[in-house]
Specification:
The structure holds two protein chains of two kinds. The C terminus of chain A is likely disordered. Chain A has a four-stranded antiparallel β-sheet with strand order 1-4-2-3. Chain A is built from three helices and four strands; from the N terminus they run E-H-E-E-H-E-H. Chain A has a single domain, classed as 2-Layer Sandwich (Histidine-containing Protein, Chain: A). In chain A, a hairpin with a 2-residue loop joins strand 2 and strand 3. By secondary structure, chain B is an alpha/beta fold. Chain B folds into three domains: about 120 residues, 3-Layer(bba) Sandwich (Glucose Oxidase, domain 1); about 110 residues, PtsI, HPr-binding domain (Enzyme I, Chain A, domain 2), CATH 1.10.274; about 290 residues, TIM Barrel (Alpha-Beta Barrel), CATH 3.20.20. Chain B is built from 22 helices and 17 strands. In chain B, helix 10 links the parallel strand 11 and strand 12. The longest helix of chain B is centred in the first third of the chain and has 28 residues. Chain B is globular and about 85 Å long. Classes of the chains: A alpha+beta, B alpha/beta. At the A-B interface, helix 1 and helix 2 of A face helix 2, helix 3, helix 4, helix 5 and helix 10 of B.
Chain lengths: ~100, ~600
Amino acid sequence: MQHQFVIQNLLGLHVRPAKAVVASASQFNCTIQIEKEGVQFNAKSLISVLSAGIKFGDTVTLIAEGEGEAEAMKTIGDLLASPIEENPARKAHQP
Amino acid sequence: MILQGVPASAGYAIGKAKVIRMETVHQPVVRIDPSTVARELERLEAALDRATDELSRLHAKWISDKREQEAEIFEGHLYLIRDDELLFMIRSKITDELFQAEFAVREAAEAIASRLSQLDDPYLQLRSADIRDIGDRICRCLSSKQAERAETGSEQEILIAEDLLPTYIAQLDNEAVVGFATSHGGATSHTAIIARSLGLPAVIGAGVNLERIQEGQTIILDGVEGKVIVDPSEADLASYGDLRERHLSRLNQLRAFGNRPTRTSDGHLVELTANIGSVKEASSATDRGAEGIGLFRTEFLFMERNDLPDEEEQFEVYRDIVQAIGSEAPVVIRTMDIGGDKELPALNLPKEQNPFLGFRAIRISLERTDLFKTQLRAILRASAIGNIRVMFPMISTMQELSRAMEAVEAAKAELAAEGVPFNRAIPIGIMIEVPAAAIMADRFAKVVDFFSIGTNDLVQYTMAADRMNTKVMHMNNGLEPAVLRLIHRVIQAAAAEKIQVGMCGEMAGQPLAIPLLLGMGLQKFSVSGGSVLTVRELISRIDRRESEELLKAVLELDDPENVKACVEKWYASRQASIMMEVSLGKPR
């Protein structure tokens, strides 16, 4: 099954939000791909998600196939369509 | 077995060998038999477990040392090593293409790394270096070679390696490691410089036989004569134990020179500062009697990491140095001097045929104006709280200098507009380390506030002799008449414009060069932290007018051997030879 989502995180799927997506996807047994502009990326791989270069406002297709696909679609879809980082302020530097 | 190397950092150490292997050799393409696929996958899993363990331990160590940056790097690696895509690719290369595990790991890491490096996102480009690093680590675990980083035990250890990275030495846990020996490298390599500033005895360039030393063998390290004694006799252990004690008591004697200005015997005052590469070294430099920092090598902020330090991080480091050394003491901050033998992973610069003649130092800063501006802003901000001076490395032409000075003005204008405080009259100086700049010193002296002669590069560029190449190292000699004349001209050019001139190269701490430099009128000596007291003692026993006479005689000579003999004779005639001996580190 597949569904389209518009990315709501202001900084796009940068490291921290991408980690959240990967962590979430890794809980499921089904295969989960994120498709952007016709290219599919493995949602369980940080390297893969990061290399998709997904930005704020991009439309992506989430494809889940196999055991628990409906639940995966709901969980990860909600994440993609949410502002994952509430306040993307610059990381404060600790001396 | 006794191995002869180059004495890189004076002192004696006795301990157990700790053998460090930096990297595995590149594996050839090896295909496996289909029947052994399962076994190969098992080897892979075991190696992954081992690599993960290593990373967790390193991560925990940096956390407990409060080194957050380092810890963060390993945290990232821990995450990436379990990446679904990376593991999938490695496994399929084993099962489908029948690659041996080592080769599969390397191929997969390389494929992913090169894919990342082609993306637009600079952050992801940097991650490609992490992926390669992870690949190397897994391969090392597959071939059960030693990890690159030493685990420090309770026993006194002497590191034995082919070569050691300067940053590696800088990060050593000083308590267990009492010295090191390498088979490669020369006395002016950065590794040696760091060893001296940490007061860690070291022998480098001891030759390939060093690699036959086994883990745990007893080693005597003689950083004075450049000897590595493997499995020493009882007699050796006793006599070196004695030497070690005497060396330490000599160091105690020198402490008397800790808190006083540096004057020649006829009362002429000179400035004696330390060269440092980290905040840690700044504190130890003050403990060792330095009057300030004559050279802060900022490249250590940029190395061994995959991103770039932002303005805040740099400012905090410069501020910490001011706090360690005091707000009155001069601190010369040199803008980054990357290139040559110092690599900068974040910029992903291509390997060059001739790195010392290539894209490095100010040449990078003038092109990567974003990096340069960030650094200048951080330095300027620190100038509000300390006696900070800014210095540009590797300046060759007046045009480079004026572009660099324009960048300073632009950074000042920005800070002024933002209402951020800084010292508007911050002194600006240049390193004189390229012969072109030395020849044009009279012109440069009209524009800048100070010169600092960087002899390590000036000597190698003037003599066209690589300081890392053991075959031509003998020509890399500051006592060569050509070098002495060039330095003399630079000092005269500075005097003519009444600007200050110092030296921050190795030569500033060499007993054979010091009277000559005093004779030339050098005002500032910046040496490694460990040499400050010996240099102060030495200068206190030299009469400046006599050193001018010596210089006159030396400038008549054509042969560096004769120069050396002439200075030695001069010392002997002053009954100061014992003093010179001890300054060279021989407590006999």
